[in-house]
């Protein structure tokens, strides 16, 4: 198992690297690659515990940490209607359809399938949307939905499976379990968030803080799940709270955190999507007692209903917001959000987690229908999603311009505050500054003016009339070339044994930070 996962990880990283180099959506290419190689390699089991307890918490935490609490608050009605209402609606519609097609299948298992395939995974949609300039509001709705819908779906799934195994669960009992799971997740998340914020105020060590951050999602998830609350909600609450207060951490913590979570996301998402495709043979082999055309028809019907249900809910949700006088997505954004219902590994993990006490024939069919829905939405909706965005001409160009304008105004205000503080500090000194001090003060003033000026210049795309480089663009280009020449000197001196490796690493880090500032 360990060797298999290592080989899967290595292959997934290679495929993801190709996708990044070509500018293709990595999740879709990884799933396709997994499907192609699945018949040619030994079966790679997808362990539900591995997905739900190892992969899911850090991915959720990273997404929450990188999200905007203020933007999510602005679209809270849409997020609530999608992450709770749409999941309930999809569960009911799919469950009733499956029960009509397969009357011998227990109704509880039919609803369990509905809960399994109800929550979309927005990773692929968000990746494509960001690359093609999907408006910020639509992206925020997608991200917010994906952060909370797993909690609703997994709670419904537990209730349905409990009923299928002989436990008589009433509507009120199911509702009570759902409310307890949600409220418990919120309470545990807030308690951990406050405690960790208090702890971080006293550490002030970027290495320690980021090491703790790697443990936080697992601790929050396990703490909530141990009392049958929602681990998903607990992780999301902690991530949103700490992400909103990240400005209180030191610059070192922020720099390291950004790098750590980018690498973590890249690695985990690559492995997860590769594992989805690799389940093809395992899923197909389990089907017994059905003719091929029967299971193909069941799979097509479930896939179609899952897609149509999302569209119906999206247009109803938009109409409801308009009736209430609230800001609602445009018609084009509604279509895009409706087509962004790609399912992911959480659905597949939940299907694999169906207890073995469920009849093997029913369990295999539910797993197959889940797999075909996940693959179908990823390959059908995922591959056409970019063309749909281009066709509807939905763009964030105005938002990007407004962002640059707001940044330039903020830089100007910050410049004035910084220079005022510099004047105050200089005025507190006794006597007139000497020549060296004057040079330092002039350099500080020049650096502040240059940073503010570069923000205004970006409004023009980095050029001035006639196509010439702006002063800031020229400065960055020349300084980057200078930094490269300086690096070569340090490396040459190290190779000549005139400079120790430890010293080389220190000076290279200084040059790297300066280049990072130039890039920003």
UniProtKB/TrEMBL annotation:
Family according to the record: Belongs to the monovalent cation:proton antiporter 1 (CPA1) transporter (TC 2.A.36) family.
Membrane disposition: Multi-pass membrane protein
Domain Cation/H+ exchanger transmembrane: 14-389
Functional note: Na(+)/H(+) antiporter that extrudes sodium in exchange for external protons.
Record keyword Membrane present: yes
Major localisation: membrane
Annotated protein name in UniProt: Na+/H+ antiporter
């Amino acid at each position: 198992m360990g060797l298999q996962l290592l080989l899967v990880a290595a292959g997934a990283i290679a495929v993801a690297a190709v996708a990044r180099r070509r500018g293709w959506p990595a999740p879709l290419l990884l799933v396709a690659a997994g499907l192609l190689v699945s018949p040619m390699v030994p079966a790679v089991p997808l362990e539900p515990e591995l997905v739900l307890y190892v992969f899911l918490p850090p991915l959720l935490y990273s997404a929450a940490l990188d999200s905007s609490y203020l933007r999510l608050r602005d679209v809270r009605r849409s997020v609530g209607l999608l992450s709770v209402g749409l999941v309930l609606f999809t569960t009911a519609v799919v469950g009733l359809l499956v029960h009509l097609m397969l009357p011998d299948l227990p109704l509880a298992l039919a609803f369990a399938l509905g809960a399994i395939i109800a929550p979309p995974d927005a990773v692929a949609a968000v990746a494509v949307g960001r690359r093609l300039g999907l408006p910020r509001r639509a992206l925020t709705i997608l991200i917010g939905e994906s952060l909370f819908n797993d909690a609703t779906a997994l709670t419904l799934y537990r209730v349905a499976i409990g009923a299928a195994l002989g436990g008589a669960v009433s509507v009120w009992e199911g509702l009570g379990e759902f409310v307890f799971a949600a409220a418990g997740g919120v309470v545990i998340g807030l308690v951990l968030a406050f405690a960790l914020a208090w702890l971080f105020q006293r550490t002030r060590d970027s290495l320690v803080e980021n090491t703790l951050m790697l443990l936080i999602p697992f601790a929050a998830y396990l703490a909530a799940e141990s009392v049958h609350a929602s681990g998903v909600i607990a992780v999301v609450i902690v991530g949103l709270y700490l992400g909103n207060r990240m400005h209180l951490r030191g610059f070192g913590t922020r720099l390291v955190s950004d790098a750590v979570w980018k690498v973590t996301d890249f690695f985990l998402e690559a492995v997860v999507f590769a594992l989805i495709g690799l389940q093809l043979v395992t899923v197909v082999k389990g089907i017994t007692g059905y003719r091929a055309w029967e299971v193909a028809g069941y799979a097509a019907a479930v896939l179609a209903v899952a897609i149509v249900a999302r569209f119906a809910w999206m247009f109803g949700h938009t109409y409801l917001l308009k009736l209430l006088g609230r800001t609602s997505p445009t018609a084009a954004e509604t279509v895009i959000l409706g087509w962004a219902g790609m399912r992911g590994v959480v659905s597949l993990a939940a299907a694999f987690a169906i207890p073995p006490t469920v009849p093997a024939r029913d369990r295999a069919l539910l797993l197959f229908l889940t797999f075909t829905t996940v693959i179908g939405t990823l390959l059908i909706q995922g591959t056409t999603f970019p063309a749909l965005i281009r066709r509807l001409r939905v763009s964030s160009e105005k938002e990007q311009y407004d962002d640059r304008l707001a940044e330039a105004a903020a830089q100007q205000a910050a410049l004035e505050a910084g220079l005022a503080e510099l004047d105050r500090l200089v005025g507190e000194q006794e006597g007139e500054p000497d020549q060296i001090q004057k040079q330092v003060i002039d350099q500080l003033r020049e650096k502040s003016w240059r940073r503010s000026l570069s923000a205004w210049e970006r409004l023009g795309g980095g050029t001035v009339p006639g196509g010439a480089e702006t002063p800031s663009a020229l400065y960055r280009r020349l300084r980057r070339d200078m930094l490269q020449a300086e690096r070569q000197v340090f490396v040459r001196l190290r190779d000549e044994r005139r400079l120790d490796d430890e010293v080389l690493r220190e000076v290279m880090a200084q040059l790297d930070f300066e280049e990072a500032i130039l890039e920003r």
